[in-house]
Amino acid sequence: MKWIKDEEFIRGNIPMTKFNIRVLTIGYLAIEEGDRLLDIGAGTGSISIEAALHGAEVWAIEMKRDGIELINKNKSKFEVNINVIEGQAPVDLPNVKFNKCFIGGSGGNLEEIFYYLDENLESKGVICGNFITLKNLHQFIDLLNKYKYDDIETQLIQTSYMDKIGLMKGNNPIFIIKGVKR
């Protein structure tokens, strides 16, 4: 499997899950051939593209028009099939059963998204979220507990990269949280 480096994606001003975090997130989701992944707040589509390349059927929802355009451009560039939805979760989500769900952005609707997933995420389905704020982290963990998810794992990941002159530049720390539906 070829992992895609950040610079290979067509980028704009939309946030993108960076390479190191993307690899870990796909690992936490345990994406396999035949999975059905819902990517909420898909941004540039980096998680969706990697998951599709691993053999998942993917639905990606993004509310920003710039993001939708980037997802479609990247989808074409990497020649993957992704069901792209312009809209907001959960009101614009399809009535489809998923076994994996990634939340990269919730638009402030985490509670409503969990209510949707209560019906649309299969038993033993995996949910994974990436967050930069403590508020969203705590709300996500509270919802995992409220909806009785098992195997909850939380990681704080801090990555840095070396710039052209040799200085280390830090990226935002990211919380990666995973749970498995009962």
From TrEMBL:
<keyword id="KW-0808">Transferase</keyword>
<dbReference type="Pfam" id="PF13847">
    <property type="entry name" value="Methyltransf_31"/>
</dbReference>
<dbReference type="InterPro" id="IPR050714">
    <property type="entry name" value="Cobalamin_biosynth_MTase"/>
</dbReference>
<dbReference type="InterPro" id="IPR025714">
    <property type="entry name" value="Methyltranfer_dom"/>
</dbReference>
<protein>
    <submittedName>
        <fullName>Precorrin-6Y C5,15-methyltransferase (Decarboxylating) subunit CbiT</fullName>
    </submittedName>
</protein>
<dbReference type="InterPro" id="IPR014008">
    <property type="entry name" value="Cbl_synth_MTase_CbiT"/>
</dbReference>
<comment type="pathway">
    <text>Cofactor biosynthesis; adenosylcobalamin biosynthesis.</text>
</comment>
<keyword id="KW-0949">S-adenosyl-L-methionine</keyword>
<keyword id="KW-0169">Cobalamin biosynthesis</keyword>
<feature type="domain" description="Methyltransferase">
    <location>
        <begin position="32"/>
        <end position="96"/>
    </location>
</feature>
<keyword id="KW-0489">Methyltransferase</keyword>
